[in-house]
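I'll show one example:
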Amino acid sequence: MCAFFRDKGLNITIQANQNIVDFLDVTFILHTGLHKPYKKPNGCITYIQRESNHPPPKNKNMPQGIEKRLTNNSSKEKIFEDAAIPYNQALKKNGHVKALKYAEKKINTTTKIENERKETANDETKETKTTNRRKRRITWFNPPYSKIKY
């Protein structure tokens, strides 16, 4: 594998026997089995302004998306609270008022058999509701969102 990348002018760095590994946006602490969100040491967190010219759902759902990502990347509530401080500051700086809170992770307790039963029930209802519809030859243009009124 190293030879393949070397032929392309790329280098691979391999580090073995580490207790802490950073992978994408998660830091894994291998000897304790914990994980936490990863942030570059000198990284600056920036978000869009609340009053910016973006669709209202995008502005409204930004804190919930950040909250969900941090919750999923944190193995404990204490880790979440430590990681959420800079994100809360960045959101407040950009006009978002909602503070990030740890949400308990939902565990899927349904069995494979229950899921199959639900799928077959859904398939049966779909078959009875289908009707033949002709395809329209209309092409719609949806312009980009803008708060500016013309």
User: Anything to note?
Assistant: The two ends are 58 Å apart (CA to CA).
